[in-house]
Specification:
Chain lengths: 120, 107
């Protein structure tokens, strides 16, 4: 079964750091671009970061310079290092696979999400 | 990055047709994708490349594109279709914007 499982969420103080992990299974992880998408409670989806198969990375302006996406293909794992966290970063963070191929830029597989709360 | 605009809400009666629009300046050049999200669940892809339907998605879900607007159409809406729907695209700089989401209410 194709699956993504996030972990590492929790409560962190403003200005603090947190590292999220996403464990992939059921597919050749190294062959796919991977993404993080977040959703604040009651709000919409917000794309957070992407990493290509070659390790190229992309971020929106809202997190650039504070968040770092990385991958470890040998462990079928995706990571998101979040620094200088703010209250506005509070959200459920989803790991998602870019389908590629016929799916092109669609996110065809999603994890169940991990909650990050930034509060004092 | 560019913005995608959706109506906040759409309401239809069971059996009717629901249409949810998504507008963006780059949509004539970039494909759009649609996701369904039910409370407490992760999003599910329902339409890719403007109008293609993944396997397992009911035929009542369809998509279309015209100029700067793409439309998700749900024909013969059922109670189980009540959910939030998001459009998404990609731009040439490597970013992946989402629309603000539309809450579909089945009356």
């Amino acid at each position: 079964e194709v699956q993504l499982v996030e972990s590492g969420g929790g409560l962190v103080q403003p200005g603090g750091s947190l590292r999220l992990s996403c464990a992939a299974s059921g597919f050749t992880f190294s062959s796919y671009d991977m993404h993080w998408v977040r959703q604040a409670t009651g709000k919409g989806l917000e794309w957070v970061s992407a990493i290509g198969t070659a390790g190229d990375t992309y971020y929106p302006g809202s997190v650039k310079g504070r968040f770092t996406i990385s991958r470890e293909n040998a462990k079928n794992s995706l990571y998101l290092q979040m620094n200088s966290l703010r209250a506005g970063d509070t959200a459920v963070y989803y790991c998602a696979r870019r389908g590629g191929g016929v799916y092109l830029n669609a996110f065809d597989i999603w994890g169940q999400g991990t909650m990050v709360t930034v509060s004092s | 990055s560019y913005e995608l605009t959706q109506p906040p809400s759409v309401s239809v009666s069971p059996g009717q047709t629901a249409r949810i629009t998504c507008s963006g300046d780059a949509l004539p050049k970039q494909y759009a994708y649609w996701y369904q999200q039910k409370p407490g669940q992760a999003p599910v892809l329902v339409i890719y490349k403007d109008s293609e339907r993944p396997s397992g998605i009911p035929e009542r879900f369809s998509g279309s594109s015209s100029g700067t607007t793409v439309t998700l159409t749900i024909s013969g809406v059922q109670a189980e279709d009540e959910a939030d729907y998001y459009c998404q695209s990609a731009d040439s700089s490597g970013t992946y914007p989402f629309g603000g989401g539309t809450k579909l209410t089945v009356l």
